[in-house]
């Protein structure tokens, strides 16, 4: 992921690697190991790190050295920053179903829960900031949450399901705000 001032961030066996994007040299290593999930806020000033069964952390990456700002213990995955850099969304990973969560950045507390998330039901943020989540039901649908109240603002029924026995997992957006794509999974395969 690209940060500011020519710095990039990748994960690996030793945690998060900060690299110089011009030379490819590793400048530092930090965070939990091995292979944490990472995301950068749209302003590229905060790195969010999740180590699945341990914690979610926020690092200030606006300077040459990443600085830990806050950590919230728990089991989290599917981390996703809001377009306004104010929040991070994620899901709990304790068990198969649990609430989606919203944490303020950079302090990560207190969090608010909304909706329910399954193992393959990732949340996505639309161009307008609304939160989208596929729901496995008959018929399949995509629930849209208001980013302020975190309440369901609408439900989009998927009336022409492209595959039988495939689970909808992720909503993807392109530059056209009127369209979105759905990722579907079945038996280890993913289709768009």
Gyration radius (Cα, Å) is 17 Å
Structural class: mainly beta
CA-to-CA gap between the ends?
23 Å
Biggest sheet strand line-up: 4-5-6-7
Amount of beta strand: over 45%
**What about the largest sheet?**
4 strands, antiparallel
Quantity of strands, as a count: 18
What are the secondary-structure elements, in order, as H or E? EEEEEEEEEEEEEEEEEE
Tally of alpha and pi helices: 0
Percent of residues in helices: under 10%
Low-confidence sequence ranges: none
Dominant shape:
globular
Summed over residues and divided by their number, the pLDDT gives a mean of 86
Describe what you observe in this structure.
With 192 residues, the protein is an all-beta fold. The protein is 0% helix and 52% strand. The protein is built from no helices and 18 strands. It is globular and about 50 Å long. The mean pLDDT is 86.
Give me the secondary-structure topology.
Layout: E1 7-12, E2 15-20, E3 26-30, E4 37-40, E5 46-50, E6 55-60, E7 67-73, E8 76-81, E9 87-92, E10 98-104, E11 112-117, E12 124-125, E13 131-135, E14 141-145, E15 152-157, E16 167-173, E17 180-186, E18 189-191
Antiparallel strand pairs: 1-2, 2-3, 4-5, 5-6, 6-7, 8-9, 9-10, 10-11, 12-13, 13-14, 14-15, 16-17, 17-18
Based on the model shown, name its key terms.
192 residues, mainly beta, 4-stranded antiparallel β-sheet, 0% helix
